[in-house]
Amino acid sequence: MTKHIQQTQETKQNLIEAFWSLYETKPLEQISVAEISSKAGYNRGTFYLHFKDLNELRDFSENLLFDKTKQCVGDCMHRLDKGDDPELCLQQMLSFYEQNKRQIVILFGEHGDPRFVERLKEEFKPLWKRYVFHKADGEEVNDLILEYTLSGAMFMVSKWLANPNGISAEKLLHLIYHTALHR
Question: Which CATH number do you get for residue 132?
């Protein structure tokens, strides 16, 4: 039974990897189940044993990445609650994104999924409110400024990830942190 579970996980992972490989080169609408299956070394039937359609595969793949992101944010918040330096926390997050660069670049790119970016912003809002954004202009104004700074930060990260020869993670960290603090 354990071997079967391991084989199932491996097959699923191969399908996910094939999906990312194709998604890296073209929009979701131009990717077919047959292409993913073939690239992973399986037939279409194998695909349908694991996913009902391409959207379910995309959602599953994005959720894996999103869950890892939530864990990173949670760890960061825990560290900040213990009094760690906020810049170390932001470096931890940027390091996480560097490790997951391929998927993040795809999702933030021109053919990516805007829902994913919105989910990330929502995940970061409590962290941003508590540790970065200390303004007292009234709730409505603060919410607008928070949305503006988070959107800007997400855009900066996406541009940074898309340019491997750009500024260092350290410089980006300082740029985002200080821009958010000094509006």
Answer: 1.10.357
